[in-house]
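User: I'm putting together notes for a lab meeting next week and I want to include a structural view of one of the chains we've been expressing. I don't have a solved structure, so I'd like a prediction I can at least talk through. The sequence is below, exactly as it appears in our construct file.
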Amino acid sequence: MIPPQHLLAGLCSLVLSVSVVAQRKGGPIRPGPWQTASKVPQGWVVHNTKNYHVQSEAGIEKAKRLGEHMEIMNAVYRRMFPPDKGGAKAQTIKLFKDEDSYQAYGAPAGAAAYYSSGDREMVCYDTGKWMDEAKTDAPVTGRKETPLERIQRRMKNMADAWKMDLLGCAAHEGWHQYFHWYVGSPVSLPSWINEGMGDYFYTAAPKDRDKGAKKAQVSLGNIFDGRLTILQEAKRQSAMEPIEKFLHMDQTAYYSNPSICYAQGWALCQFLLHGADGKYSKIVPTYLRLVRDDTNTDVVTQRAFKGIDLATLETEFKAWLDEQKASPDMTGGLDEPEEPETPVEPAPPAGGDKPTNGARAK
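Assistant: Thanks for the context. Below is the predicted structure for the 362-residue chain, given as structure tokens.
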């Protein structure tokens, strides 16, 4: 049995989002917005959209793609959690060209992206994986794949599946950025819904634009393969947190068991929004509406879950969890059946007809 504390813990670096003030190691990169050209460092470009001020060390084309995705996500945040105020300053996003430059800026250890309310910016780096890029399959050679080639292909697919997606990380941190503006006060949102909804938005995948559609869209409610894989294993090991305890965990307790807690936070939000035939779909939006006006999160939790039997919810949640399936790429597709061999019919005996129904050829 795998000890729960080592349960694929490496995945927590996928989107271990921490709202902190970056501790910079010096250098010319200024935090926050750059309002004049003189503040733009050499090698950087700026791309402004309606709601975002994108600073990019990875070029203008990627700045535009990131800005477009975040505009779509901003519309999703607003649609799901409508603000009661208008207007907002453009939110700053920094896109570093690689992990080394991102870490040199002072990124928190283990984080693929982060939001700093103190510096008024979300910071990320080009991971090399962008979900808006079409997945390319290996070229068809016309010959059957050898067993070694099959294993190599599946291992590559598995490595790609666990790799951090830049747009997903940005959508996760963009949620924290939006919530900070949405509430407008230093509300400490419980981690299960704060990080859980961040991971929910991580999986928001761009959709092909329909003919005549003015704006691109994303599909919501997609399975977060990595989180699902971890939580299903945690359930098998009886390592999940009890729901009643989980709803009241503070950030320190949540971060002390990140692999399981992040996975359970995503899965619980996914279940509440899409599971049980919609029976619990109002809990998340109700919670976030209430927390704007009440910083007592224990009271907010009681009101949002009013009339809900948590023991029943937990039973249904675990049953739902058992029904979900991750992409075959998460295991390298090693559970896929081998391609059946083409049967070769035996040659008929020399000088006679082929035997039929066991009869001997004459």
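A couple of points you could mention at the meeting. Residues 189-333 form one domain. The first helix runs from residue 60 to 80.

User: Perfect, that's what I needed.
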